[in-house]
Amino acid sequence: MSKLPEEFVRKMNDLLKDEATEFFATYNETRLGGLRINPLKVEPKRWEKQSPFPLNKIPFVEHGYYYALDEYEPGKHPYHFAGVYYIQEPSAMFVAPLLDVKPGERVLDLCAAPGGKTTQIGGMMEQRGILVANEIHPKRAKILSENVERFGITNAIVTNETPDKLAKHFPYYFDKILVDAPCSGEGMFRKDPEAIDYWSEQHVIACQRNQLKIIDAAIHMLKEGGTLVYSTCTFSPEENEQVIEHILANYPDMELITIDKGEGIESGRPEWSVSKGEQLKKTARLWPHKIKGEGHFAAKLKKTKPTPNLVIKELKLPRKTAPFQLYFEFERDVLKGPVFPNIVSFGNVLHHVPDHCPDLTGLKVLRAGVHLGELKKNRFEPNHALALTLKKEEVKNVFELTSEKTDWLRYVKGETFTTTNQKNGWTLITVDGFPLGWGKIAQSVLKNAYPKGLRWMK
Ligand SMILES: C[S@@+](CC[C@H](N)C(=O)[O-])C[C@H]1O[C@@H](n2cnc3c(N)ncnc32)[C@H](O)[C@@H]1O
């Protein structure tokens, strides 16, 4: 690991005093990895029997497990390709459950890439309601969109916008908003030493300025009674307690809510703020010397005053006529019954959108619901996203692979298979029962439809 910046060391010594030695000692300890299972695809009981890695439960999050980083590579296991879990820094898993999301709500994850918290929220929504996952940087937005796809989330809309532009589109629209803010990343120094090179006290202040702007847009999008969760993976009070005191001073309709803290999770530090307001203890700090994780800050706020009741137009669903016939033929041949009710077309591309999907005109949208596939000349070609949202039981023709053999690797490399006794046409490829993608059988040859951009290249 690179040397920690002297100024950072001095600052943390000043802040933490006697605790500083314990804090700095963690930089020499072995880190643990974190993995969170996808409740849309696997039950914890099944997982605990089937997990290919020895795991220990993370005490402060449902569905989260530690694994030994130096012994296992869950990112290279077929279950990862099938979206059975997400690899996520353990303390980062603490944040999304604070939103207390219910299926059917309207939820915004404003700074969402690469999608750790979005996929966790998606799991909690059980495919019901609207989940807008936004990322400002186009390349990161693409990664976010791929992770949403891998997780098989059907009610997410992935956008690539600035917070201000979204705020114009969605005034007072959301029940729950997460701002997992871009920050100076002091909690990432062990995991990502590049964060050390970026660090300076000026950078901390620049991040704070940016955070306040993002929050202003977020608050504008929250409706009365709505919840805002703010989080960072940095320790600096300027980006944490001081951001929250700014909200409390400038937005009289925002009230701080106490976060329940389990073992090892500490309160925010009023003494590190300007106002010294005791209520900052309602916020939470996760420290690497108190829990097994890199560290995080989280605050939960509620909007208490009435907001204008603006009606946001819904996306108009077309009548299911001619252009969709090819899709319905595919549905009849390949699926055991209809699965997706809200079909819309964007040119030749068909999507299933969530119920009450808002009108998205004017926004850069990477994904709206499920990308079902494309209408080609005289046929419908299913998209990879469709395979990942389906359950094996919903499909007529299934080609089963197991994680024990290397066939799954041949599949994600894009190789062709030979088959016997299987019907011609589209078939769902599974690994130990988890959908992995599509293949198309003709005369005992299974052509591989695993997307070129996702193929295993090594
Ligand atoms: C801490 S990361 C989010 C991590 C993500 N929530 C997760 O759990 O995987 C912050 C994100 O904010 C994005 N970001 C940077 N500047 C931004 C801005 N001005 N407005 C909104 N998001 C921004 C970054 O590109 C980055 O992807």
TrEMBL record:
UniProt GO MF annotations: RNA binding; RNA methyltransferase activity; S-adenosylmethionine-dependent methyltransferase activity
Binding site for S-adenosyl-L-methionine: 111-117, 135, 180
Superkingdom of the source species: Bacteria
Keyword DNA repair: no
Record domain SAM-dependent MTase RsmB/NOP-type: where: 23-304
A biological process from GO: RNA methylation
Active site: 233
Database matches in Pfam families: Methyltr_RsmB-F, Methyltr_RsmF_N, Methyltranf_PUA, RsmF_methylt_CI
InterPro entries according to UniProt: Methyltr_RsmF_N (IPR031341), MeTrfase_RsmB-F_NOP2_cat (IPR049560), MeTrfase_RsmB-F_NOP2_dom (IPR001678), Nol1_Nop2_Fmu_2 (IPR027391), Nop2p (IPR011023), RCMT (IPR023267), RsmB/NOL1/NOP2-like_CS (IPR018314), RsmF_methylt_CI (IPR031340)
Keywords for the protein's UniProt record, in alphabetical order: Cytoplasm, Methyltransferase, RNA-binding, S-adenosyl-L-methionine, Transferase
Family per similarity comment: Belongs to the class I-like SAM-binding methyltransferase superfamily. RsmB/NOP family.
Full protein name: RsmF rRNA methyltransferase first C-terminal domain-containing protein
Organism: Fervidibacillus albus
Source taxonomy: Bacteria, Bacillati, Bacillota, Bacilli, Bacillales
